Amino acid sequence: MKLIVAGASGFVASEIIRQSLSIPQINTVIALGRRPVSTPSNLGRGAVASKLHSVVVEDYGSYTDDVIKQLAGADACIWTVAITPTKSRGLDFDEVRRVCHDFTLAGLKAMFKAHSEGESRGDSPFRFLYMSGVAAERDQSKTPGWMPQYSLMRGETENEVLEFARQHEKEIEACVAKPGLITASGQILKTISATALNYTMSVPSLDVREISAAMLHQVAHGFEKEPLENDDLVRIGRQALTAS
Fold it and tell me: For residue 121, what are the CA distances in angstroms to 112, 116, 171?
């Protein structure tokens, strides 16, 4: 299996890459990012560092013929490119939309083109797993109580990803992961924030190892359901980690 991890230098993507190098079913990992990505230093048991190939793009909105060629033959992508709600507060919303919405659709279409023109065309549908968030609102007629403009934009992006897959039903499968706050061992402040948000606003959380393992399992074995909610990601992730 050839897997693309988009947003490769990010917090979640780095853990996805680390785990993927230990999964025998995955023989090539394309780390797609705006700067070169090196092999993680804390590799797990059975990891094969030579699986990792770093592919650099100037931005996620345009793809050269050379990049398309390197993406060809891929079986799946986990898309993690986004601006988080907290970081978005200090940025112009047009830029937030460009990164979260426009880049996602451009990347999806570029990978679809690479898959359609590659040798793997017709073998099986390309799997695209879009990492969104628990607060993203797909119903555009609603006004979310929390960061409405951001939440609606992320929901709109989910809708368009899924609609693109419906338009190419036998060639691509899409699914959305909707995690809550993502924590990590040793990040004390984030863990405290997760506990507080869960208590005051019922915002769920999960560990970065869990969501990474869950998303890897789903692109490798097929999407269990759509969307993948926080509880689904915790359950699938823990099962995958236990089995590894």
Answer: 10, 5, 8
Q: What pTM, to 2 d.p., does this model score? A: 0.93
C-beta of residue 43 within 8 angstroms of C-beta of residue 19: no
What is the DSSP secondary-structure string of 41-78? SS--TT--GGGEEEEE-S-TT---HHHHHHHTT--EEE
The CA-CA-CA angle for residues 18, 46, 238, to 5°, reads 60
The 3-state DSSP class for residue 28 equals strand
Residue 205 is given by DSSP the state: E
Q: How far apart are the first and last CA of the chain?
A: 17
Residue 167 burial (10 A CB sphere; 0-12, 13-18, 19+): exposed
DSSP secondary structure string for all residues of 106-130: HHHHHHHHHHHHSTTTTTSPEEEEE
Tell me: the pLDDT tens digits for 106-157? 999 999 999 988 765 557 899 999 999 999 999 999 999 999 999 999 999 9
Phi, psi of 116 (to 5 degrees): -65, -35
Using an 8 Å Cβ cutoff, are 68 and 112 in contact? no
Return the DSSP state at 92.
-
